[in-house]
């Protein structure tokens, strides 16, 4: 059914469950490292393997991170809450239960405003609770699919990594903007956890994972429709696409007089959902209070301390930077379009570079190099301070544009700071006037035709001479100065 | 009164295989336990908070510090089956799809 018709006949109701993997150094209940990419089962211990007699102890930073997330979502913070065991048999959890929170979440009753197309939509927050991540399964045989596999292999390095689950209440009144409200909310969460410094916030790496609940209510009816839950939708665009796809799929079923089945669905790369496992009922998890972990009772003074550490709201910060930097909407939009660029440019500006120069470096030369290396912009081995240093060298005339790019190349190659690269590669502009003079005289002698044209007032012909000098100086001259010298000699 | 089918469901969730005779036996025994809990519940009034922990402690936390030693081999040694440094388990879903 066409999207417009779905929206005309039905009101979409959304619910979003987002898991945020924290960037703590150690796991939720034990001192194992959370680093990604270790040898299989190298970051495990008796606690995260759930061996008998081991005793978990909660990571204080994870609790602080959860509270700061909750405060950023305008939530109330519980004065006392417990962990709970969620029992299920699936080998990604070595304990046969996940330690989570049940009816006593750490944070609850918040709200977030999401702006789409100039309109503001309220996203009410049900809860933020603490839990742990699961291990990674590899299915062997049956083309790697779980259903046909002969057996499965498990790496528990990720088991026990702190995970925060953020659950919205049902979101009403979004109408045709439902897909964009959903992705706008995800973008807010991503920016927020990054600004808080509690998570790397990379959706493509699974630091943020979204389960999308969608149902349709016929217009004029107050009855909630049956919902589907699409699991693990892991990009902003996919979140919007999954909402739109489910609205259209369910709209077609309902319009034909059918009934939507309550089920879990999978998101597919091709942009559509397929049925997954039928959902176990909540009570089947047989939650009960976790006896090995004592309750968390945040002192109001501690919560106030944490509140004081909250960064500027991402939307306000963007608005402030846009105003401070004075870019056009389009120029600023280009920055927002590249993940991490805003922070890098802000840090470079803070290190003394003009916004225009900072933007130019990160969005052209460095974006290109990140692209070539297949890494994110903020993963390049160069800091905003180093970029600022290169720009300062350029502004002082110590290097020219071409040399500056070579300095960047050297820093990226691990050759040290910009100053060290300039020294080791001998990249400084030749300011020795005698050497320059000699090169200018040689260039004029080698190309009398161009020299004659310049003498006749055809200044454009100086280009060939400047090129020859620059080549002779191996690029290490200030082109403007060379030009000046040539024109002076032929004037 | 706990029914036999409720016990069968719980057994299935806990992955415990029980014979018909055992189901009957367990239903009876669990009923006695539930009866004892009900007796306690009847005595416990609003002013007695439910207890989940024996010791009234809160906020026992550790700093976010890596405290770990490489001992993958020892961790894997206890597993019934291992392949490529990973725990090997039988195929997971047979009833689905």
Care to describe what's here?
The complex is a heterodimer of chains A (491) and B (97). Chain A is α+β, with helices and mostly antiparallel strands and 491 residues long. Chain A has helices spanning 3-9, 60-72, 178-196, 236-255, 300-307, 314-325, 329-337, 341-350, 355-373, 384-396, 401-412, 418-425, 433-446, 448-455, 462-472, 479-490, and strands at residues 10-21, 58-59, 76-77, 84-87, 97-100, 107-116, 119-132, 136-140, 151-155, 162-168, 208-218, 228-233, 263-268, 272-275, 288-289. The longest helix of chain A is centred in the middle third of the chain and has 20 residues, at 236-255. The mean pLDDT of chain A is 91. Chain B has a domain at 1-49: Glu-tRNAGln amidotransferase C subunit, N-terminal domain (Histone, subunit A, Orthogonal Bundle), CATH 1.10.20. A two-stranded antiparallel sheet of chain B has the order 2-3. The chains are: A alpha+beta (491), B mainly alpha (97). The interface between A and B is large, with 55 and 36 residues. Strand 9 (151-155) of chain A pairs antiparallel with strand 3 of chain B, so a sheet runs across the interface.
């Amino acid at each position: 059914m066409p999207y417009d018709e779905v929206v005309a006949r039905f009101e979409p109701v959304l619910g979003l469950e987002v898991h945020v993997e924290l960037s703590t150094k150690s796991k939720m209940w034990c001192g194992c490292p959370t680093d990604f990419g270790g040898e299989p089962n190298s970051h495990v211990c008796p606690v995260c393997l759930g061996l008998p007699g081991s005793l978990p102890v909660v990571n204080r930073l994870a609790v602080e991170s959860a509270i700061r997330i909750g405060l950023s979502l305008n939530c109330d913070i519980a004065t006392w809450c417990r962990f709970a065991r969620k029992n299920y048999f699936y080998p990604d959890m070595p304990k046969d239960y996940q330690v989570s929170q049940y009816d006593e979440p750490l944070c609850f009753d918040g709200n977030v405003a999401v702006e789409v197309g100039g309109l503001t939509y309220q996203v009410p927050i049900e809860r933020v609770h603490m839990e742990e991540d699961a291990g990674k399964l590899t299915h062997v045989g049956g083309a790697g699919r779980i259903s046909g596999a002969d057996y499965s292999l498990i790496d528990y390095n990720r088991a026990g990594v702190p995970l925060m689950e953020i659950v919205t209440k049902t979101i009403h009144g979004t109408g045709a903007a439902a897909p964009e409200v959903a992705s706008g909310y995800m973008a807010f969460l991503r920016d927020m956890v990054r600004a808080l410094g509690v998570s790397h916030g990379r959706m493509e790496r699974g630091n943020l994972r979204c389960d999308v609940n969608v149902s349709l209510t016929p217009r004029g009816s107050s009855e909630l429709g049956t919902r589907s839950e699409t699991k693990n939708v892991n990009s902003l665009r996919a979140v919007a696409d999954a909402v739109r796809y489910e609205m259209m799929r369910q709209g077609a079923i309902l319009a034909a007089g059918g009934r939507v089945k309550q089920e879990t669905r999978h998101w597919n790369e091709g942009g559509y959902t397929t049925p997954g496992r039928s959902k176990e009922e909540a009570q089947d998890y047989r939650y009960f209070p976790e006896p090995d972990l004592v309750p968390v009772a945040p002192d109001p003074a501690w919560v106030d301390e944490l509140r004081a550490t909250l960064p500027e709201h991402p939307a306000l910060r963007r608005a402030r930077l846009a105003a401070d930097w004075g870019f056009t909407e389009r120029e600023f939009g280009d920055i927002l379009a590249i993940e991490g660029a805003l922070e890098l440019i802000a840090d470079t500006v803070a290190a003394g570079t003009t916004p225009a120069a900072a933007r130019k470096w990160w969005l052209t030369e460095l974006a290109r190099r990140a692209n070539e290396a297949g890494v994110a912009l903020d993963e390049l081995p160069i800091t905003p301070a180093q970029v600022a240093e290169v720009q300062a060298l350029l502004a002082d005339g110590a290097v020219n544009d071409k040399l500056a790019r070579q300095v960047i190349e050297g820093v990226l190659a691990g050759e040290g700071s910009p100053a060290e690269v300039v020294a080791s590669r001998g990249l400084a502009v030749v300011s020795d006037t005698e050497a320059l003079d000699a090169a200018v005289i040689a260039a004029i002698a080698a190309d009398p035709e161009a020299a004659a044209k310049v003498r006749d007032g055809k200044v454009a012909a100086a280009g060939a001479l400047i090129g020859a000098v620059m080549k002779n100086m191996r690029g290490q001259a200030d082109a403007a100065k060379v030009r000046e010298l040539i024109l002076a000699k032929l004037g | 009164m706990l029914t036999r089918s409720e016990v069968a469901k719980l057994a299935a969730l806990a992955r415990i295989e029980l014979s018909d005779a055992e189901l009957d036996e367990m239903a009876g025994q669990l009923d006695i336990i539930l009866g004892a809990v009900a007796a306690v519940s009847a005595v416990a009034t609003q002013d007695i908070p439910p207890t989940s922990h024996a010791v009234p402690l809160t906020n026992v936390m550790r700093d976010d510090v890596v405290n770990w030693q490489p001992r993958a081999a020892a961790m894997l040694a206890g597993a019934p089956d291992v392949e490529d440094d990973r725990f090997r388990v039988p195929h997971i879903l047979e009833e689905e799809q």
